Amino acid sequence: MAYNLPEIHQATLPGGMKLLGVEYDRVPWLSLTFMAKRGAETDPLDKPGVADWAAELLTLGSARRTQLQLAEDIESRGAVLNARGGWDATLVNLEGLSEDFSELMATLAEVVQTPGFPEDEFSLLAERRRAELMHQQDDPREMANIRYLRLFFGDSPYGHAVPGDLRSLDNIGVADLQEFYRREFTPATATLIVVGMAAFAQVKEEAGRLWGNWTGGGPASPPYVAAPSRLSAPGIYLLDRPDLTQSEIRVGHLGLPRAHPDYFPLQLVNYILGEGGFSSRLMARIRSDLGFTYGIRSSFSFRRAPGPFIVSTFTPAANTAQVVEEIRTVITEVHQNGVTPQELAEAQSYYVGHFPLGLETSRGIGRQVLSIDLYDLGTDYLTRYCDRIRGVTLKAAAAAAQDHLQPDRLVTLVMGPAAVCAEALQNLGPVKILDEI
Amino acid sequence: MTPSRNFDPAAWQPDIALERFTLANGLTLFVLPDHRLPIVSLQIHYKVGSRHELPGITGISHLFEHLMFRGTETLGPEEFSRILQAKGGEINAFTTKDHTSYFENLPAEHLELGLQLESDRLLNLKLDDDTFQPERQVVISERKLRSVDSPFGLVEEQLFATAYTQHPYGWPVVGWDQDLHRMTLNDCLAYYRSHYHPGKITVVIAGDVEPGRARDLVDQYFGKIPAPVAAPEPKVAEPPQRGERRAILKKVSQVEALFAGFHIVGLDHPDLYPLNLLAVILSGGKASRFHQEFVRVGKAIALDVELAPLPFSAQDPDLLVIAAVAAPGQSLPELEQEIWGALNRLGQDGVTQAELSRAKKLLRSQAVRSLAHNFFRGLLVGIFHLKTGDAQLANQILSSLEAVTADDIVRVARTYLREDNRTVVVLKPVTPEESQALGPLQ
């Protein structure tokens, strides 16, 4: 399989900001991303959501244009502006047709460099967030995800929902968003990523002109890299939702940071455990053999600091305890016995064979470049990627499973009708009843 | 600085090059060669969806899609997926009102393997109680996920069930809960024999392949499979709606909401293009009317015009749905009246040129972006062919949208967004106790 990998061009702009570019000529599309390399992990404890709210407010008016003018000008070019907080980074993304290269480049620079922070838009934003938070309670999957993180991480930086929660509504003011922006939006810890139908020489010249004089704020918060000092005690936690017909189940423990040397073996092990769809053991056991769920997957969130490892699924409530037990059994098997040579070979050939599918679109390429930069993976990462996957031995995979899967440390959250599932869960061990969403 | 020749957007050509072949047994093949990356999207579209079902076995098309992964005479359950995934493939399937589509996006060198396995499960599917029973349970869980426990799933089901009195679009693709429990293995076997044969198949191969080789491979694996005389396609027309219909659904919910459906046109009708633009003018993007008038200012949490993008709207006349979620403290009846007022205003005063050109460019840019995907290019061609008989419509989307005038927008708004053509389902929140008193959710 011979094909050309996209070349990642790199430059440092006069103001000190990093520029990464990939020339892409499949369709006349441009994906522009400004990345400030600090995100929701910097949110103050009593003000969750600051990074995400600040990102949205950037899109609601610049010093020169109102929200309506911005929306009309951007959308009249068929472009889409999105900004959001995330773990480890805050992203402002503008995508559109490459025939509008100059306008798109200039608009992104304007939105990031000269925000208006309009008070009236902030009030409306807060009201919308209030309504969205209320509405979110109708989505069992989303609520289980949020509640699990709060249960597991408590007050540590990864413990809240990125968009915030009810505390945000009373505690966040526009000054908090300005302060986040002033601190974290600075050339020293930011990157501009341009993927699309534009020559890099042109991108560099335009970016230099638009960003060369931007000094931004800073100094940025120190990067959050430590493991949290306190985590929830292992065990089963039950949140009663009598109105649900299925239980939402989350089972997990602390994972690893992205920089950990076991990243590749653990990715392969996790594919076999629960990430690999019908090739995974969890899906084979709980969906294919037992018919207990439509979907189940496990994932490690590799971040700057150790993120969570979580198995997520749902099942008609009467099956809840059996599914929780099966998950524990499958994790224990992989932890103790590792994976088979055939499983490892198939996981490796999946990642290697699938690799070019991720290079089809500018968005797919942009996503890879962003991660390469955020986690310092090196601009030759794509070149080395397949060899790193192929290089994982059965022994390394077994060691990763042994070291990093912790069946005796599992924190399990069940959100479902207690009247149907509590008794059977108690047979598995003590169940702590949680009484609030 | 002038862009170099390779990066000149004006030189880009949006047309999808395609070659069509028809095998003697009736199977249609489209090949869309593109050699940029060593990958292909292999798609097998069966012309069978929920429209082909009957009351009592609703959901069988979708359940059958699941059974197609449960093994053959020589392969175990889910081995189909495992083998192709181990080659790097993305394997999945989806069922709609009109068709069931299976796809494998995979390295081009494994195209033959994909065809071989697709042919195997068409010919040698293993259907017995050991595979049928657990898979039925999986689908029951899927229905609970998508319909029963999701915020608006049951509201949407109620909307279609109320708006369609005679057409099979009235029941959900996933099927009614009781039918899923009642269905038998024999029902599935009968369905398999009637609908899974080459006369009902459109194969699409998009990506790094030569058309002649693609044709030879498809012929090798599918050419010898006989096709029975296909039963004529059911032709059912929903009678014109003669007056507004309303329903209420009570459910535990934090919000009040309404879903309003208007009967529109099928995929082969030219009015679909102005309707798509109308949907964007109303709710596409932050500059749209609904966002500015309702969402931004906190009257509605969400207010969307839902019309599946081309070519995904249904073969027969579909519903254009307006989904409104009231913000806390806002009166839903008042919100509803304001929405009808906004539609009437559009019908009377029309749209501005700026609105129309913005909507056109938004749809054009979305189409251009999607054309980067072999998978999407294949879907465009395959689904247009399957639903309208004209694959070339895939290459006319941009010009058809461009030709729409402001008068066309007003005309379709007046024609379709009428009170007499409207069905409204209101979601009324109740407490868990009240909900339980109303009986089990299904």
Question: What can you tell me about this protein's structure?
Answer:
The complex is a heterodimer of chains A (437) and B (442). Chain A has 437 residues and is α+β, with helices and mostly antiparallel strands. Chain A is built from 16 helices and twelve strands. In chain A, α9 packs across α12 and α11 packs across α15. The longest helix of chain A has 18 residues. The mean pLDDT of chain A is 96. Chain B has 16 helices and eleven strands. Helices cover 41% and strands 18% of the residues of chain B. The chains are: A alpha+beta (437), B alpha+beta (442). Chains A and B meet through α2, β5, α4, α8 and α10 of A and α2, β5, α4, α10 and α12 of B.
What tags apply to this protein structure?
heterodimer; A: 437 residues; alpha+beta; Cytochrome Bc1 Complex, Chain A, domain 1; 2 domains; 6-stranded mixed β-sheet; B: 442 residues; 5-stranded mixed β-sheet; 41% helix; disordered N terminus
Question: How are the SSEs placed, and which strands pair?
Answer:
The complex is a heterodimer of chains A (437) and B (442).
Chain A: E1 9-12, E2 18-23, E3 29-36, H1 50-58, H2 67-75, E4 80-85, E5 90-97, H3 101-113, H4 119-136, H5 140-153, H6 166-171, H7 174-184, E6 190-196, H8 200-211, E7 235-240, E8 246-254, H9 263-275, H10 281-289, E9 296-302, E10 306-316, H11 320-337, H12 341-354, H13 362-374, H14 381-390, H15 394-404, E11 411-416, H16 418-426, E12 431-434
Parallel strand pairs in A: 2-6, 7-11, 7-12
Antiparallel strand pairs in A: 1-2, 3-5, 3-6, 4-5, 8-10, 8-11, 9-10
Chain B: E1 19-22, E2 28-33, E3 39-46, H1 60-67, H2 79-85, E4 90-95, E5 100-107, H3 111-124, H4 129-148, H5 153-163, H6 177-182, H7 185-195, E6 201-207, H8 211-222, E7 245-252, E8 257-263, H9 272-283, H10 289-295, E9 300-306, E10 319-326, H11 332-349, H12 353-370, H13 374-388, H14 397-402, H15 406-416, E11 422-430, H16 432-437
Parallel strand pairs in B: 2-6, 7-11
Antiparallel strand pairs in B: 1-2, 3-5, 3-6, 4-5, 8-10, 8-11, 9-10
